[in-house]
Design a protein that fits this description.
Number of strands of chain B: 6
Structural class of chain A: alpha/beta
Number of helices of chain A: 6
Largest sheet of chain A: 7 strands, mixed
Strand content of chain B: 15-25%
Number of strands of chain A: 7
Largest sheet of chain B: 6 strands, mixed
Helix content of chain B: 40-55%
Strand content of chain A: 15-25%
Radius of gyration of chain A: 19 Å
Helix content of chain A: 40-55%
Oligomer: heterodimer
Strand order of the largest sheet of chain B: 1-4-3-2-5-6
Order of helices and strands of chain B: HEHEHEHEHEEH
Shape of chain A: globular
Largest interface: A-B, 17 and 21 residues
Chain lengths: ~190, ~170
C-alpha cells in the first residue's frame, strides 16, 4: 500500500515536472524573424496612423531609421498594456528619429478596439491590422508564430537586431533594453 | 541555338511592344505582367540606352514621393537615350489602387506588374534584394547594372547618375 502511494506520488511529480517544462518551453517560444534577418516590405491596413483607412507599408515608410515592429495575436488587456508601454518608449526616443508600429494579426475586426485604445490612451504610434488576418502573407514573411501572443522586432537599417516574443506586460523591459542598446549603437 | 536566339528576340520584341502600348494606354488592366526573365530581356532589348528600373508599390509612401522625380528625370533625358521601366510590386487584388496611381501620376514610360511578389522574384532580380522598397536599378548602355538604390532617389541624384552614363556625356 505504501509502495503504491509512493509510486503514485512519483508519477504525479513527474507529470508536474513535464507540465512545468512544457509551460517554460511555451513561454520561451520564439516568434518572428531572427536576429540579422532583413525586413520585407509588407502592406497593412492603417487604423489610427497618418494613413488611417489606407493600405500602407510602415516598414517602407520607416526606411533605415531605428524602430520597433510589434505584432500582437489578438486584442485584450495584456495587449493594451504592452501597446501603451511601446508608445511610452516611442515618446522617449522620438526626438532621435525612432519609430514604432503595433500590428494586430487578427485583422479588421480589431479596428474599433484599436481606435478606442488610441483615443482613450492618447497614443502617438500607429496601430494597424493585417488585412487578411492570420492568413496574411506577412505571417510567413515575418515568421510570426500564430500561437505566440506577441512579437517585438527591434530593427535598424531594415535588419532585425533583436527579437523579443511571447512576453507578459511586466516583461516589457526586455524590449526597452533591446531598444536602448540599439539606440546607443546607432548614435552617430 | 538559333531557335533559342530567335525565341529570345521574339520575347524582347513582344515585351517592348507590350510595354510601349502600356505607356500609351495608362490603364491598370493593360499592364504587362513580367517575370524577372522578361525584365532581363526588356533591359537587354534596350541596348544603347541607359535603363532605369524602378520597383514600387501603391502602399509604399516613399515610392509615391520619389515617383515625380523619376518622371522629371525621364522627361529631361529621354531624347538623349534614357529609358525607364516602372515595375509595380502590388498584389493582384490591388488593381484599383494601381489604376488610381496611373491616373494620378500619368507616367510617360512603360509600367509593368511583377508576376509574383515574393522572395523568388526579389532574388531573381538581385541577389541582395530582400524586398526593400522603393528599389531602383540603373543599367548602362551596354546593359551592365551600375547603380543599386534600396531607398528613395531624388532628382539631383538620379539625374547625375543618368547623365554620367548617357552616350552624349
Amino acid at each position: 500500500m505504501k509502495n503504491a502511494t509512493t509510486r503514485i506520488a512519483a508519477a504525479a511529480a513527474t507529470c508536474c515536472a513535464v507540465l512545468l517544462a512544457a509551460a517554460a518551453w511555451a513561454q520561451s517560444s520564439i516568434s518572428g524573424l531572427q536576429i540579422g534577418s532583413p525586413t520585407a516590405s509588407i502592406p497593412v491596413l492603417d487604423v489610427t496612423g497618418q494613413y488611417a483607412g489606407q493600405r500602407i507599408c510602415y516598414v517602407c515608410e520607416f526606411q533605415d531609421v531605428p524602430n520597433v515592429l510589434a505584432f500582437f495575436r489578438e486584442t485584450g488587456d495584456e495587449t493594451a498594456d504592452l501597446i501603451r508601454q511601446l508608445d511610452e518608449l516611442y515618446l522617449r526616443h522620438k526626438h532621435e528619429d525612432f519609430k514604432a508600429v503595433a500590428a494586430i494579426v487578427v485583422g479588421e475586426e480589431a479596428s474599433p478596439w484599436l481606435e478606442e485604445l488610441s483615443a482613450s490612451a492618447g497614443l502617438e504610434i500607429p496601430l494597424v491590422v493585417f488585412r487578411r488576418g492570420p492568413r496574411d502573407v506577412a505571417m510567413r514573411l515575418y515568421e510570426i508564430d500564430p500561437e505566440v501572443d506577441n512579437t517585438f522586432l527591434v530593427t535598424v537599417n531594415r535588419f532585425v537586431v533583436d527579437n523579443v516574443s511571447g512576453i507578459a506586460a511586466d516583461e516589457f523591459g526586455r524590449v526597452v533594453d533591446a531598444t536602448e542598446q540599439m539606440m546607443a549603437q546607432n548614435t552617430p | 541555338m538559333q531557335a533559342k536566339i530567335r525565341r529570345s528576340r521574339w520575347l524582347v520584341a513582344s515585351c517592348t511592344a507590350i510595354a510601349a502600348a502600356c505607356s500609351l494606354s495608362a490603364s491598370a488592366q493593360d499592364i504587362p505582367v513580367v517575370t524577372p526573365e522578361n525584365l532581363a530581356a526588356l533591359i537587354a532589348g534596350n541596348e544603347g540606352k541607359v535603363v532605369v528600373v524602378n520597383f514600387w508599390a501603391t502602399w509604399c509612401p516613399p515610392c509615391l514621393r520619389e515617383f515625380p522625380d523619376i518622371i522629371d528625370v525621364y522627361k529631361r533625358y529621354r531624347d538623349d537615350g534614357l529609358e525607364v521601366l516602372a515595375v509595380s510590386m502590388n498584389y493582384p487584388e490591388e488593381m484599383a489602387d494601381i489604376e488610381e496611381f496611373l491616373q494620378n501620376f500619368d507616367p510617360p514610360f512603360p509600367v509593368l506588374l511583377a508576376a509574383t511578389v515574393d522572395e523568388t522574384f526579389y532574388e531573381a532580380v538581385l541577389d541582395s534584394w530582400y524586398g526593400e522598397m522603393p528599389m531602383t536599378l540603373i543599367f548602362d548602355t551596354a546593359g551592365n547594372r551600375v547603380h543599386i538604390h534600396k531607398r528613395p532617389v531624388t532628382y539631383p541624384e538620379l539625374a547625375t547618375e543618368v547623365l554620367a552614363l548617357l552616350p552624349s556625356s
